[in-house]
Structure formats: structure tokens, C-alpha cells
Amino acid sequence: MKNRHLVLAAAVGVAVLSLAACKKDAATDAAKPATTQAAPAESADQFIARVNAEYKAMYPEMTSAQWLSSTYINDDSARVAAKANERWLTVLNGWIEQANKYEGQPMSADTKRAISLLKLMTSMPAPRDPQKLAELAGIATKLEGDYGAGTYCVGEGDKQNCRQLGDLEKVLATSRDYDKQLDAWQGWQSTAVPSRANYQRFVELVNEGARELGYTDAGQMWRSGYDMPAEEVGPETDRLWGQLKPLYEQLHCYTRAKLDKEYGKDKAEVGGGMIAAHLTGNMWQQDWSNLWDMTAPYPNAGSLDITAALEKQYQTNLSGALAKAGGSDPASRFKAQREAELATAKQMTERAQDFYVSLGMPRLPDSYWQNTQFIKPLDRNVVCHASAWDMNMGGDGKDVGPDVRTKMCITPNEENFTTIYHELGHIYYDLAYNPLPPLFQGGANDGFHEAIGDTIVLAMTPKYLNSIGLVDAQQESREATINAQMRMAMSGVSFLPFGLMIDRWRWGVFDGSIKPDQYNQKWWELKAQYQGVAPATARGEEFFDAGAKYHVPGNTPYLRYFLARVLQYQFYKGLCDASGYTGPLNECSFYGNKEAGQKFWAMLSKGASQPWQATLKELTGTEKLDAAPMLEYFSPLQEWLKQQNEGQMCGWQAAAPAPTAAPAAAPTQPSAP
Predict the structure, then answer these.
(1) 156 is in an annotated binding site
(2) Which of 248, 431, 515, 569 has the maximal Cβ count within 10 Å?
(3) pTM over 0.90
């Protein structure tokens, strides 16, 4: 089974908002109270009550602008989103400036926390200068739009072949042709090159905005959002990585040996034992589950091929759609294929919903099924990166109900299946805390938001998958256990160092220790240090490989995903305990357990209303982040890996190839579709 990191991308919530309204008059009116109408005698409590009301009133327009810019990528939607961002950041700056006036004044504990959250409400702090603020909003929209439209083309004229991210990812996932994989990997990296200059300017502007808010740089501002001193965040995550690194090193050693056998050591390895970046089955080397065909410990110990089961479901839907169409001409077949794709995507989503409902949570509102993007449209560019959206903070409680959505380009495979469970975790978190005041409608910390759905994924045990008809009944044996654990590790454990290195890179970019002329060099040095991967060919400063990962141009802080990996196992253990389970942790599924569901919903309902340490303690009994539950979960696999790796030289020399020369044959630059 496979967890998606993101990814996330990204739930639209209080902690990461960089959105704004698209209707000029409404947005202008909303901005006035925050900047010109504050009564001098307004108390801190009254100020926060007003901000909450104004924020909720303008929120649907803010999210609509961003939704359009992600699902209809063109100049018009980019212009709307950029102006919306500009207006939102102007309003937010006004609120923050007013909030500073209440320093030291009497206020309730909730108001004090709300003001603290208000000052950290965006990951994109904007300068007060109106021209610079507008420039920042425009750059942010362009960076994300260019990523979504990224296309790698080769050939000319009628022979030109253009591929976007999904097609290139498929090559890495399914091909075992070294040269084709390298071409696909280099091709996608090339699409980020035009964004390098814009990103450099983006960094300058958000740093200026952060300094105006009293922070040394944007990185320090990001690290200030964890209910602990900013300077403690780095050491705390290093402590957690210290707990987990031995497990990762064993997985790295085992996987490297399998790649050596498949491709030859001269191709599979780079430098001192590092894995060639384009051979992990994933564009960013963050998830190795597509290598299952060569890494499966015991191929005959039962099938866990979820993708094959989903593909069979799609073929059944296709046969039905073809029969309904009553024709075999190309147009009829194409229409039937689209119907089958949509039907399969909705069935996968319904299956994920069923898990949450089995815990006593509500069914998704009708609006979810009406407004969600399930599959990739054919008539326009979209950002296919999966994300979850709360469009209206639960509605008005009367005539307008909650409007929650997910945005994906679902295909019938295991990765997408578990991604849906992950994204619905964001949605159910939104629904649980919607009754709270708007400024408290967010995760206890950003790692919490990412961990909710991933906790559910952990409970998708082989027994659960068998119960819903996706895999055969699994023989209870040590071999079957190791197989199941390896499936989880090839996604969850392989991700851990990647979850750290992205923000280690950005923190350096923000504080100036990584200079603009070192962007690519330092990116690959960190990937070598943390992940033990390296490019097969030199990657000089003419490239911008960090920009080929959505969360960099999308400006989404990434530490949340590392924290989520740790938190999900703590949540999982707490819910297994609540359900009364007493066996090996890795075999627990609380599907259908209302006691576990009630405890989970109670945690989700707290939102950001209290420090995350208190919320964590209510579910797990401890207020400390701890990787021990994750290590407990993977203890059978870790011992097995040590046995398999006996006699090998595990580890790697963390020195990336000197990034001074361009590849012998530079990939074709991206073209607009």
C-alpha cells in the first residue's frame, strides 16, 4: 500500500492561504472595514470578532478565484487570481497592522491565540508597498500556472511529441528502459528552467514582507507557526530524523542492490553508493513503490496488486459504457472511455468515503460530487496535483451548506487510490472544525492536516483490502507480513528524508546561506546528504530542478509532510488503542469502529483552537512528537532488511557530482501546449 505525501498538496486552509476574491466591488468593500473603519474604541475581542466575520464573508470569493486558476489555466484566470491575491494580501496586511495595536492590552485567551494565528496566516508574506505587493501576487500566480502548463516537447512540426507531467511520470513508473527513463526525467526538470528568475524575485519579495512583520526572513516566519520557539524546530526535526534514519538506510541499501541487479551497478549507482535519481520510479525520488516489481520480498506470498484490481474495475465499467453506446466507431468508443474513467474515479472516491462513514463521520455533501474535479479535462490545462478545498467554511448554516471539493486527475492505480483516502482526510478535517470561528478553522499544526488521511491509509491493511474485494485473502505468515510492510515502506519510509530536505533548501534560500547562483548545486547536495540520490548527469546552474517540484513554485511549506509521517503513526496507535486492539501494531485496522471514530472526530473538531501539543495529548496521551510508534510498526521489516543486507556496504558518500557542466545533450526546452 502506498501513502501519498502530498502532497498536497495542499489543503486550502487558514495556515496556507494566499487566495483572494475575484469580484472587484465585493473585495473592495470587504477591504474597507479592515483598513479604514476600525473604531478607535474597539477592543481586541471586538476586533477579532469583526475579522472573523469579514474573513468568512470574503472567503468564498477568495477560494473561487484560486479554484479557477487551478482548473482553467489561461491568461484570464491567471489575471483574476493575481488580482485576487493582491486584494487578499492587502486586507491581511491591514488586519495584521491593526492587530499590532493590541499588544499588551487585555483580551481573552481565544483572542490572544487568534491574533497569533492571524500574523501567521499566509506562507507568502507580502510587502506593504502596493506595487511590490501586486508584483508578488502576479509572480505567485505565474509560477503556479507555469508549473501546471509545463510541457516537454521533442521533434518538430508534425513529428513533434509533447508530454506533460502525467505522461512523463508514467514512463518512470512503468518502463525499465534506462534511456527512456532518463529522457522523461530530464524532460520534466527542463520545464522548470523558465521559472528560475521569477522564483529568485519571489524570494526577495516574501523576505521583505516577512521582515516588515518582524521576522528575519520568510523561513523563520514559517518555523514560527508550531507553538514553540522557531529556533527549536530544526533541532526537533533533526531529533526525529535521528530516530528514523537507520530504518531508511536499511531500505536504501536493499533497494540499491535490487537496482544494481536490474540495471548494473555502473548505471544504478552514482558517486559513492547513491542511487541514480531517474531510477526510483518517481520524478522526485520521494516514493519508491513503483519499484515493487523488483523489490517484492516474496512474490508468491499473496497478491497485493491493488492497481490490477482497479484496472479490472475500469474495464468492467468500459464494457458497460460500450454496450450502452451501442457502437464501435472511434467517437462512441472515446465517449465510453471517458464515461468509464469518470465512473471508476467516483467509485474509488466512494470507497474512500465509506471508510470515514464507517467510523461514524457524515457522508460528503451532494455539492462535493457536483463540484469536484475527478479526472483530467480534455479541453484545458489544469493543475493535476491532488488537493482538497473548503470553499466556504461550512456555509452560512442556513440556506448555504458546506462546499468542499477535491481536485485530482484520477487514474485507476494504487497511488491514486490511497491519495483519495489522504485527500478526504483534509475534507473531513474541514467539516469537523467548520463550526469554529474562522481563524480557528485550520489544523492544530500543518502536519496534522496532512496526517489525517494518512492515518486512515495505515488502517488499509491486507484484511481490509480483502474485505472490500481489492486483493485476495492473505495467508497469515511472516512472508505475507514482510510483503505488506515493504509496500508501506516503499512509500512512507522512502519519503522521510525528502520531507526534510525541501524546506532545508528553502530555509537556506530565504536566509541567504544559499545564494541564487547556487540554487541547483545546493539542491543536489541536500538530496545527496538526506536521500542518498544523485543525478546521472551533471546538473549545472542553467537548470532549476527545485522548481520541478510543485511545492516550490506553489510556495507550500513542506516540513508538514515530514511531521505528518511521524504524527500519522502516533494517531494510528492512539486510535488502535481506542478501538481495543491488542495485537501487533502493523496488523491493526479500526475500520467500522465507532469508538475510534468518535475519538478521531473529537480531535478534528478542535481545529487550531488550542496548541497542537494539547490536541496530540488528548488522542495519544503524550504532547511530544515521537517516531517510536513508526519504528514499532516497521520493526518486523527492519529486522528482515538487516538480514537481507548482511555483508553489504550500506550507506553512501554524500557528495553530489560537481554541477558545473551541462549535460552532453541538453533536453529540449518546454513548449506551451
Answers:
(1) no
(2) 569
(3) no
Residue whose C-alpha is closest to residue 522's, from 503, 495, 497? 503
- Residue 390 CA to residue 378 CA, distance in Å, equals 25
Q: What's the rounded Cα separation, in Å, for the pair 223 and 233? A: 6
> Cα separations (Å) of 557 from 149, 219, 539, 655?
22, 9, 24, 26
478 annotated to a ligand binding site = no
pLDDT of residue 655: 66
Long-range contacts of 662-665 (CB under 8 A, 24+ apart): 662/538, 662/540, 662/542, 663/186, 663/537, 663/538, 663/539, 664/537
Find, among 4, 22, 117, the residue nearest to 443 by Cα: 117
491 closest CA partner among 163, 42, 28, 6? 6
For residue 268, pLDDT beyond 60: yes
- Domain positions in the chain are 122-154+161-302+488-556, 306-476+561-645
How does 107-130 read in b/e, with b if 16+ C-beta sit within 10 Å? beeebebbbebbbbbbbbbbbbee
Residue whose C-alpha is closest to residue 655's, from 285, 248, 189, 274: 274
Does the annotation list 5 as a binding residue? no
The per-residue pLDDT for range 188-246, each reduced to its tens digit, is 999 999 999 999 999 999 999 999 999 999 999 999 999 999 999 999 999 999 999 99
CB 5 within 8 A of CB 493: no
DSSP 653: B
* Gap between the Cα atoms of 545 and 535, Å rounded: 11
Among residues 383, 498, 379, the alpha carbon closest in space to that of 4 is found at 498
**Cα–Cα dist 223/610, whole Å:** 18
Per DSSP, 272 falls in state: B
The residue with greater pLDDT, 409 or 13, is: 409
Residues belonging to the active site:
423, 551
Asked whether 429 and 604 are in contact (CB, 8 A), the reply is yes
Beta bridge partners of 275: 269, 533
| Cα–Cα nearest to 418, from 460, 473, 474 | 460
380 labelled ligand-binding: no
- The helix-helix angle for 24-35 and 75-99 (nearest 10°) equals 10
CATH architecture observed for domain 122-154+161-302+488-556: Orthogonal Bundle (1.10)
Q: DSSP for 538-566?
A: ---TT--GGGGSTTTTTT---HHHHHHHH
Contacts of 309 (CB under 8 A, 6+ apart): 469, 470, 471
651 contacts 605 by C-beta, under 8 angstroms: no
Any idea of the CA torsion for 80, 85, 90, 91, to the nearest 10 degrees?
Answer: 90
Q: What are the phi and psi torsion angles at 274 (to 5°)?
A: -85, 155
Measured distance between the N- and C-terminal CA atoms of the chain, rounded to whole angstroms: 35
Residue 464: what are its φ and ψ, rounded to 5°? -65, -45
Are the C-beta atoms of 188 and 175 separated by less than 8 Å? no
Which tens digit of pLDDT belongs to each residue from 586-615? 999 999 999 999 999 999 999 999 999 999
Average pLDDT over all residues of the chain: 89
Question: For residue 600, which of 458, 417, 398, 413 has the smallest C-alpha distance?
Answer: 458
Residue 404: phi, psi to the nearest 5? -115, 145
Beta strands 387-390 and 404-407, pairing class: antiparallel
d(CA 277, CA 527): 10
The per-residue b/e assignment along 374-397, b for 16 or more CB within 10 angstroms, e otherwise, is bbbeeeebbbbbbbbbbbbbbbee
Give just the sign of the alpha carbon dihedral 13, 19, 21, 27. Answer: positive
The burial class, CB within 10 Å (0-12 / 13-18 / 19+), for 583 is: exposed
